[in-house]
Design brief:
Elements: H1 16-25, H2 32-37, H3 41-56, H4 62-76, H5 79-92, H6 97-102, H7 114-129, H8 134-143, H9 146-168
Length: about 180
Amino acid sequence: MARVPYLEESDLSEHAGLLDRIKRGRRGKLLNPYKALLHAPELARAWFEFTNTVRTAGSLDARLRELMVVLIARLTASAYVSGQHIPTLAIAAGVTLEECFEIQDWRNLIKLSLRERAALCCTEEMMKNGKISDSTFNEVKDLFSLPEQIELMIVVGMYDMARLVFDTLEIDPEKNGA
């Protein structure tokens, strides 16, 4: 149960424009994080703009991004991110159930591409060390364009930030996934 009360759409009449924008960007739904974040509407607006941009404006393919998110969820035991992404969003992006459950042992998953391995190494090092090693950075530089390199770092940072906020507030995963 969340540590803050969830706002319902009926509580948000003075923020109808923002509410409509959020719902349009989240497949017509007001997700639990926004039901909590909308207690601070301007921060909820900024959160939506940032996270929606990271999720939709980049050039990384959905499978690669979702592998990274699943690894973050597993490394941090994030209830919300795990509940949202495993299995529904992960499978929709082409990640198998085996990959979801074995992601922490990603070095032994034989079907991963070189780019996926580099992205997972980057994700793991950022999550465990707060940055990546020179050797990992060089591997990322060899396999990804400069905009993609920046996107990799931002995806990890954004999902880490999201799980910190959502898990601290004990936001409930959506029923039946996102």
